[in-house]
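Data availability (excerpt). The following record was deposited with the supplementary files.
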Amino acid sequence: YIVEKREASRRSWQEVSGKCTRQILRVGDLVEGVPYFFRVIAENQYGPGEPFEMPDPVIATEEPAPPKRLDIIDTSKSSATLAWLKPEHDGGSRITGYVIETKQKGSDHWVIGGNTKSLSITIEGLTENTEYEFRVKAKNDAGFSEPRESFSSVIIKEPQIEPTADLSGITNQLITCKAGSGFTIDIPISGRPVPKVTWKLEEMRLKETDRVSIKTTKDRTTLSVKDCMRGDSGKYYLILENNAGVRTFTVTVNVIGRPGPAIGPVEVSSISSESCVLNWKEPEDDGGTEITNYIVEKRESGSTAWQLINSSVKRTQIKVTHLTKYMEYTFRVCAENRFGVSKPIESQPIVAEHPFVPPSSPTRPEVFSVTANAMGIRWEEPYHDGGSKVTGYWIEKKERNTILWVKENKIPCLDCHYKVSTLVEGLEYQFRVYAMNAAGLSKASEASRSMIAQNPVDPPGKPEVTDVTRSTVSLKWSVPLSDGGSKIVGYIVERKPYSDTGEGRWLKC
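Predicted structure:
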C-alpha cells in the first residue's frame, strides 16, 4: 500500500510510505495540533489503483492532562454531587467529555459512575452511610487522561444544615401596597433536609384561598395575596423547620387605604344658645398612613341636608359657633388621610340653649358705712347659682321719693361688697343687687333699708352718774366733738345689768 498525507491548509500530497504491506501504519513527524488528510492507494504487479481519501481531517494530538481539583460539593442519602476544573492542556484536541469513577472505601475496584460534558455531575444510586472515593478522567480524540482523585473520601448521607432564608431582596423587610391591589413575598430558602415551610399572619396560620396563594420549592417559597384589604396588614412570619432546627423570619406588610371611622360617640359639651364644643377620638385604623384632618358637618332638625362646618380640623375637638337659639342640631365627623375619607360618625341631637338657668337673688344688701356722698353696701351670694358659676353682680340705687331704679356700676362687681360714691348729701337712698351667670341675670334682691347720705356723728362723751335714788339714776355727758354736719336732735340712752363677764342685753331707757 502507498500512504500519503497533506495538511488541511495545503493541496499537495506527500508520500508517507510506499511499501506498507500491512493494513495499519503509524505515521510520525506530524506537527502537533495541525489537521491532516490521509489517503491510501493499493498497488499490485500491474500498478497502483485509485486512492481512498479520509473524508474528515485528523488532528495530530495526545491524551489530555488530568482535570484539576475534584471537589465533593454536596451529598444526599443516595447521591453525591462532584465538580472539577478543566485540565491544564487538552493534548492538542478538544475535550469531548469526562468519565467519573467511584469506589467504596476498602475496595480496589473502580466502577464507572457517569459520563458528562460539563464540569459537574450528580452520581445517583449510592448506598447510604457508605464511604466512597471518586476520580475523574478527561477524554479527547487521543484517549483518556490520567485520573484525578478527590482530596478525601465521603460518607453518603443527608447533611444536617439549619434552615435559613434570604430576605435581602425585601428592603427593610417591609412591603407597602394599596388596598385593592396585591403583593407577593418571594424568599429564597435553604436547609438540609429540605425544610418544612409554614406561613403565618400574626398568630393565624395561612392556607391557600381564592385570594391567598402559597408556592414552595426546595430552594424558595412564594406567598401571594390579591385584592388586599386593610386586615391583610401586619407581620407575616415564615417558619422553616427541619431536623437541624427551626427558624422564623418576619416580613411586615402595610396595606394602605382610607381610614376607618373616628371612635365615637361624638360628645357635645359646653352647649349654649349659639355655640357648643364637639369631642371625638382618633380612628382605631388610620388606613396605614397619617390622619391629615377631620371633616365636621351639622344638620338642622327637619332637614336632610348636611352643612359643612370645617373641613380641615387638625385636632379631635372643635368649637362650633353661629348656632340658632332653640334649634335642634345633629353633628357628624369624618376622618381623612391622603387616600380618602372614612365613614362618618354622628352625635345625638342637641338643642342650642343653655343647660342652666339664671341664679337666685342675692340676699338683702346691708349698708355698713355712710358719708355725705358715699355708702358702702354688702350682701351674700345667691343660695343657688343656677348650675353655672356666678360671674358678677349689678347694683342699682333709688332715691326715696322716686320709683326709678338706676344702675350704679358700669362693669360687673366681682365681690359681695361695693362702694356707691355718686350720692347727693342729705338725700335718702335704697339699694338692690342682681347676680349674673352664663344664663343671664337673677331677679333683683330685696331693697336695702333707706339711709341718708350724711357724714356720721361722733359719739357723746362718757356718761357720768350725778345722783342715785331707790328707783332712779341721774346721768350727764358731753356733746359729740362733731355733729356730722347736721344739728343733733337727741340722744338714745341704753342700760344693762352689771356682771363680771360683761354679759347681758342693752335695753333702751
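Summary of structural features: The chain has a mean pLDDT of 91.
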